[in-house]
């Protein structure tokens, strides 16, 4: 086994124990999901840069009602990517898109609290379940994380097609990637050697850098969230990934947080990530202004802000 691949495997195996669904946040009953299929779309090996000629839409001033859909997506015959989508049912379309990547042995529903909060703030949120790292995967393989950035890019392509089919639901010029733990590693990959040029912002929750030469391509603002007491992905590793970013960036440090800092009542993480996404994808100056206040409310976290 090549040395680099061996090191990646060690890192991913170390994540396994702490990323089980029992450790992940769960939400209460949600709207009954509707199963739908998306028309096949040829994957793009070289995504075109989004057209930024139009000014961004104004961020919603109120919490929006949302709905849930389940899409049967896939990348090739052997990589099914069932994707849960939350999106507003009112408000001014098109909305920005956020694609979220779960951790090892987890699933999109485990993060429903924070993903629903983003959707209510004016975003289409798509969360695929990865074929070999999801909860109860038949052929569980943590090393398959290295293939997940390409999966996310395929989901972006399919979601853009879905958006066109549903009344220009999604703005192709405003797309972000986010993820937790191994999903954070996936997200870092999307801004690195497997860079998706369509992405304009990223959120990395309890993630780290695995492969060398990270964060390539055009600048995209990044928000890192990491627990100071994380024993699965040490805080120093998350901080090193943050330090490697040469673009506008911020780091939310959860003072007494462990690897799973997304509990149902942990308001600073939800508020800060929402502020960041509204600022970077809507140009919401009000959200930018309250970023530090929301991050430090209650004295549970600190914010290093270089945005």
Summarize the structure.
This protein is α/β, with parallel strands linked by helices.
Descriptive labels:
single chain; 307 residues; 8 helices
Task: Give a description of the structure.
This protein is of the alpha/beta class and 307 residues long. It is 28% helix and 23% strand. Strands 1-2-3-5-4-6-7-8-9-10 form a ten-stranded mixed beta sheet, with helices on both faces. Helix 3 (148-165) crosses helix 4. The protein is globular and about 45 Å long. The chain starts with a helix and ends with a strand. Residues 3-7 and 9-53 have low confidence and may be disordered.
* Biggest beta sheet attributes: 10 strands, mixed
Major sheet strand order: 1-2-3-5-4-6-7-8-9-10
**How many strand segments?**
10
Strand content: 15-25%
Rg: 18 Å
Tally the helices: 8
Bulk shape: globular
Which percent range fits the helix content? 25-40%
Mean pLDDT across residues: 85
Layout of strands and helices, then pairs:
Elements: H1 3-16, E1 34-37, E2 66-74, E3 80-88, E4 95-101, H2 112-120, E5 124-128, H3 148-165, E6 170-180, H4 182-190, E7 199-205, E8 222-227, H5 235-244, E9 249-254, H6 267-282, H7 285-289, H8 291-296, E10 301-306
Parallel strand pairs: 1-2, 4-5, 4-6, 6-7, 7-8, 8-9
Antiparallel strand pairs: 2-3, 3-5, 9-10
């Amino acid at each position: 086994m090549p040395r680099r691949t061996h090191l990646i495997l060690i890192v991913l195996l170390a994540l396994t124990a702490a990323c089980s669904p029992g450790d992940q946040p769960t939400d209460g009953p949600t709207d009954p999901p509707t199963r739908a299929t998306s028309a096949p779309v040829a994957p793009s090996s070289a995504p075109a840069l989004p057209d930024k000629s139009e000014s961004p839409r104004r961020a919603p001033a109120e919490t929006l009602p949302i709905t849930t859909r389940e899409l049967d997506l896939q990348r090739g015959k052997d990589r099914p990517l069932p994707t849960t989508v939350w999106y507003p049912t009112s408000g001014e379309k098109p909305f920005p898109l956020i694609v979220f990547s779960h951790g090892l042995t987890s699933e999109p529903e485990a993060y429903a609290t924070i993903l629903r909060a983003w959707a209510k703030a004016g975003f289409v949120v798509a969360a695929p379940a990865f074929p070999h790292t999801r909860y109860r995967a038949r052929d569980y393989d943590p090393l398959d994380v290295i293939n997940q950035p390409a999966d996310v890019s395929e989901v972006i392509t399919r979601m853009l097609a879905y958006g066109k089919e549903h009344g220009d639901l999604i703005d192709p010029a405003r797309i972000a990637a986010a993820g937790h733990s191994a999903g954070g590693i996936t997200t870092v990959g999307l801004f690195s050697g497997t860079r998706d040029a369509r992405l304009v912002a990223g959120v990395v929750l309890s993630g780290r850098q695995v492969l060398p030469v990270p964060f390539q391509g055009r600048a995209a603002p990044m928000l890192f969230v990491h627990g100071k007491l994380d024993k699965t992905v040490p805080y120093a590793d998350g901080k090193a990934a943050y330090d490697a970013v040469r673009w506008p960036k911020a780091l939310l440090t959860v003072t007494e947080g462990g690897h799973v800092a997304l509990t149902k009542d942990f308001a600073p993480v939800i508020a800060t990530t929402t502020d960041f996404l509204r600022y970077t994808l809507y140009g919401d100056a009000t959200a930018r202004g309250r970023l530090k206040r929301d991050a430090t409310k209650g004295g549970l976290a600190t914010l290093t802000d270089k945005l």
